[in-house]
Q: What sequence folds into this?
């Protein structure tokens, strides 16, 4: 029967398409819970292929906020965490979920705002004063509001500026609970200030009317750390391959790849694995 | 502002320059979605037919439940599956989280109620028409299911397309359970979400255009086949 | 080929169907005899169709018995009878597939199905339509297909509900010829009709229903010449309106 044959052929074609992805599954891989900033800045696009070429280990990156990334690791769904919120990382270690924290690199945050600059902070080097001015003028500010590293840094900056957010918050302060890129999109649409890591900012394509208003303050430095998830807590962790990734990141070779990543003529990340205090 | 030309050139450069990666994403999207929908069909159509024909206590409750599940929020479905598949969840040992299989499961769960609910309605209507004849032939309710499924095939194509629409448009659930891993669990919709968040709106829109073209092509093809088929075997 | 131990006669006793307190059908006794052409008459809503459906086993009675002569399993009884409905049910398939499907349901093997289908289509002039979708056939063709499909199951007993209603005279004639062929073959036919001409030409026995009750069961000639019941008299004189 012609029709029967046709149906069989169609069915098997569908199933073939359906299963085609399984051919992509690599045997040797690790899962890294990391942040949207490392992914959105494009760093992983050069970092990971270099590592895979050297070791044959594929790295699967789940890009989340730092808080969510650490939570993913706590559930046992990642082998390595690569994030940027030191206090949260130390807590993760203290809870026994991490083996050891290695500093890897830093970039810095920038305060981004509309050209009209309603808070009048353009060109300032003092981020605390700038934040104070934003709060005083109730100029629109978009916050990640997602427990990410950037969000944590932002909250610390309000503290440093002596602003009690709970007391002064109002319509001008918008928590959107999304990633860095979405936050920048929102800031652009609302002509608001926001805090961004420099990497995401440079790579971000929808700048519109936004520009950097504050940069260069020491308080804006953003340290990245990497940790292997503790196999004593999570037995399924791929210890050897995960550690291999960490060892490579802090090795001269890995550090060189990080230093070499530029967008245009701008270096985005500064390796500092040798700084014990980072 | 977005320019049409920017989108158009993005579409072209996606198709041309970086075609390999795009193809991978498209194939993965199609693979996950079609597998999920086909599986939902194999499970859901007999279930829907069964629900149409078999009388049991609580049947009305089940029907209302299934109809409700048609509107199951994908994010909630994603979260539930995430918690089930997570290493610390009950099915963690399978190691399925952040894999295409997890995305398939999520889409399967989202599509299944649609297939069951819509096919139940279709089969029940056809059963009213066929009932006397099939009973006279001694088929019985369960025995009638294959006949009804086959004879309702052209209406059921529409049912499956509805399921396909839900699956292929879906982003919330597969983002959570797939993790949007580049080259592994990154699909059309999660790419669009990602490029939007990176502020690359023309690229996101270009991907959207490609996704919509694919959906249109699949729907057109299915509709065409079913129309030709329907004409061939008498209007349904 | 034909099983010599017939199901018939079929004897119906004290058959009642009630729904929501209303009596829809009430048949104290009726006997469908082997190889007799039984015609069920009565005005609309008299219970003719219900009577057929109950005898055929499609609708379970509230009370009473429907007994076939030779005791067999329920499945066997089912296989030995068939029914053609007023609005014939056409599967969304080709004419041929309508045959093979019914035969498959009756448990006939794959190659045997195709042979019987081909043979039956040839007998009833449907061969040219074999690959045509059943649902695009004309009303007359659909009715022929429905009867031939039922006949292909080789039943002892065939129920037909209004087989010639809404057909033009030529198509009606064709159907009547088919029924004659089946009768010659030894199939016991029970049909309802509003066509008194058909009843006069065709019937051996008349069952006359009125208001859900079987009022009169009579030899056809006697029924038409001297009906026993007042209702039947009125019906034949076209005076019975409800």
A:
């Amino acid at each position: 029967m012609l029709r029967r044959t046709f149906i069989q052929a169609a069915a098997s074609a569908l199933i073939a398409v359906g299963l085609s992805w399984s051919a992509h599954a690599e045997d040797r891989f690790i899962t890294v819970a990391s942040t949207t900033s490392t992914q959105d800045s494009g760093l992983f696009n050069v970092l990971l292929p270099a590592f895979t070429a050297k070791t044959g280990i594929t790295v699967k990156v789940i890009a989340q906020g730092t808080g969510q990334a650490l939570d993913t690791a706590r559930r046992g769904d990642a082998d390595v965490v690569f994030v940027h919120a030191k206090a949260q990382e130390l807590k993760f270690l203290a809870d026994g979920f991490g083996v050891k924290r290695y500093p890897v690199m830093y970039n810095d945050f920038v305060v981004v705002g509309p050209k009209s600059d309603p808070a009048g902070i353009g060109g300032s080097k003092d981020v605390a004063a700038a934040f104070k001015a934003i709060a005083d003028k109730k100029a629109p500010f978009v916050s990640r509001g997602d427990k990410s590293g950037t969000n944590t840094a932002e909250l610390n900056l309000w503290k440093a500026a002596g602003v009690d957010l709970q007391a002064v918050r109002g319509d001008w302060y918008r928590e959107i609970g999304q990633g860095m890129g979405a936050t920048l999109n929102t800031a652009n649409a609302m002509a608001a200030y926001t805090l961004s890591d420099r990497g995401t900012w440079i790579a971000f394509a929808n700048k519109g009317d936004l520009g950097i208003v504050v940069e260069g303050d020491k308080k804006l430095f953003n340290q990245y750390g990497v940790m292997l998830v503790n196999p004593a807590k999570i037995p399924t962790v791929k210890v050897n391959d995960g550690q291999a990734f960490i060892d490579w990141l802090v090795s001269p070779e890995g550090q060189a790849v990080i230093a070499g990543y530029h967008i245009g003529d701008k270096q985005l990340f500064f390796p500092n694995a040798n700084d014990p205090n980072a | 502002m977005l320019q049409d030309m920017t989108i158009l050139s993005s579409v072209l450069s996606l198709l041309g320059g970086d075609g390999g990666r795009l193809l991978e994403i498209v194939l993965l999207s199609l693979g996950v979605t079609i597998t999920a929908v086909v599986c939902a069909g194999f499970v859901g159509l007999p279930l829907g037919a069964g629900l149409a024909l078999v009388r049991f206590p609580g049947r009305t409750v089940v029907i209302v439940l299934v109809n409700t599940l048609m509107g199951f929020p994908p994010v909630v479905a994603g979260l539930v599956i995430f918690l089930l598949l997570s290493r610390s969840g009950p099915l963690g040992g399978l190691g399925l989280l952040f894999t295409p299989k997890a995305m398939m499961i999520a889409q399967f769960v989202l599509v299944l109620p649609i297939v069951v609910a819509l096919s139940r309605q279709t089969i029940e209507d056809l059963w009213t028409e066929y009932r006397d004849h099939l009973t006279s032939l001694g088929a019985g309710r369960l025995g009638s299911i294959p006949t009804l499924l086959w004879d309702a095939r052209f209406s059921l194509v529409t049912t499956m397309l509805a399921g396909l629409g839900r699956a292929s448009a879906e982003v919330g659930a597969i983002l959570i359970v797939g993790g949007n891993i580049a080259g592994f669990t990154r699909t059309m919709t999660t790419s669009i979400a990602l490029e939007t968040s990176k502020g690359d709106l023309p690229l996101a829109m270009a991907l959207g255009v490609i996704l919509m073209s694919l959906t249109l092509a699949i729907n057109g093809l299915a509709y065409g086949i079913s129309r030709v088929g329907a004409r061939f075997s008498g209007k349904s | 080929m034909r099983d010599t131990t017939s199901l018939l006669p079929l004897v119906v006793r004290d058959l009642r169907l009630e729904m929501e307190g209303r009596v829809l059908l009430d048949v104290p006794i009726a006997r469908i005899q082997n190889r007799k052409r039984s015609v069920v008459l009565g005005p609309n809503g008299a219970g003719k169709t219900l009577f057929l459906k109950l005898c055929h086993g499609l609708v379970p009675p509230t009370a009473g018995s429907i007994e076939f002569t030779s005791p067999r399993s329920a499945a066997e009884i089912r296989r030995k009878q068939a029914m053609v409905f007023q609005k014939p049910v056409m599967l969304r398939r080709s004419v041929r597939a309508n045959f093979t499907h019914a035969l498959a349901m009756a448990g006939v093997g794959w190659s045997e199905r195709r042979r019987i289908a081909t043979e039956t289509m040839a007998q009833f002039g449907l061969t040219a339509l074999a690959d045509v979708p059943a649902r695009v056939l004309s009303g007359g063709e659909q009715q022929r297909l429905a009867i031939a499909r039922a006949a292909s199951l080789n039943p002892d007993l065939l129920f037909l509900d209004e087989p010639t209603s809404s057909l033009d005279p030529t198509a009606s004639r064709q159907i009547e010829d088919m029924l004659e062929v089946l009768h010659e073959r030894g199939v016991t036919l029970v049909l309802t009709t509003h066509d008194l001409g058909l009843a006069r030409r065709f019937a051996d026995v008349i069952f006359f229903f009125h208001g859900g009750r079987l009022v009169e069961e009579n030899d056809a000639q006697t029924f038409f010449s001297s009906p026993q019941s007042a209702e039947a008299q009125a019906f034949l004189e076209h005076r019975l309106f409800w």
